[in-house]
Design brief:
The protein is an alpha+beta fold and 274 residues long. It folds into two domains: 114 residues, Phosphorylase Kinase, domain 1 (2-Layer Sandwich); 147 residues, Orthogonal Bundle (Transferase(Phosphotransferase), domain 1), CATH 1.10.510.10. The chain contains ten helices and eleven strands. The protein is globular. One of its GO terms (biological process) is lipopolysaccharide core region biosynthetic process.
Amino acid sequence: MSTDELCLEEPFRSLWASEDPFSAVEALEGQVFRELEGRRTLRNEIAGRGYFVKIHRGIGWGEIFKNLLSLRLPVLGAQNEWQAIRRLQELGIDSMHAVAFGRRGSNPARQLSFIVTEELTPTVSLEDYCLGWANNPPAIRLKRALIRRVADSVRRMHQGGVNHRDLYLCHFLLHLDPKPTPESFRLSLIDLHRAQLRARTPRRWRDKDLAALYFSVLDIGLTKRDLLCFLAAYFVRPLRLLLREEAPLLASLASEQQRLQTRFARKSAAGEMT
């Protein structure tokens, strides 16, 4: 039985109408952001509009078994991100807009797949937007509005059965047109390549996401009140109650922070941080 899938929106529906989309996507040219044996990420431009293209060529049985032996589900291709984007849309969480998706082949180790998303511009990652906060604090109302929005998005994502697995500030894009204000701004969650989808997010994976987010904000000058603001917005519970009920999570943040620092240092030394 065929497991092939194909979904094309404009301009790719017209652009690839008379050719094989799997061959056509391989022929796309542009700025390459990531080039691995089984995966390629590039930015392509059509009629003055930017698109990000991710091509997956299968991860091989070795990688599949390595993940399974580590009790992790392997990411086989673009289908994971495609499904995660659609789930976030259902949950009302701003994310990327996928305009093309394809999957071909029944062999999970050699499955071909791709996803094309519209470039979100003009935007800035929250990581870059917050870089100077430690020495030049922003207006308190805008800072607290951003904190509450991040907390609300992450809470709804987890309640909707999605855990990101790379939940860092750099994967939140703040839209710059119109200029963000405390009353009105748009924030998009991106890079869902490794996201996991279930009916409900297990506490273990919820806590890993929250620890990753905490790790990514350590150097931007947030105060204890800012962190409590996030917790109150995420858990929607009185602070006294959540500090008691979520004591294991709060206690684990330090150890998870150390694990992530070690992981980032290892990847940086291996040249994998691109």
